[in-house]
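Sequence, please.
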């Protein structure tokens, strides 16, 4: 999902302002179950053009919407 960088936590917002001139980033999340059947989610944040990949993490539980992703990034 495309979001404006001002919706990101301050540390991410600052990073993108220093490394790009973009005002929007691509925030993606992918829910899945691991091999033990536990719910997990992969989260990534990168520039819309794909040139700057800033964040990637896996968290426990499923994420249902962008607000939950933004909260997880804090």
């Amino acid at each position: 999902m495309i979001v404006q960088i001002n919706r990101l936590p301050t540390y991410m917002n600052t990073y993108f302002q220093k490394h790009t001139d973009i005002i929007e980033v691509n925030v993606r999340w992918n829910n899945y179950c691991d091999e033990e059947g536990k719910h997990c989610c992969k989260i990534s944040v990168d520039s819309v053009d794909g040139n700057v990949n800033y964040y990637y993490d896996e968290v426990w539980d499923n994420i249902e919407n962008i607000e939950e992703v933004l909260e997880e990034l804090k």
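Residues 25 and 48 are 5 Å apart (CA to CA).
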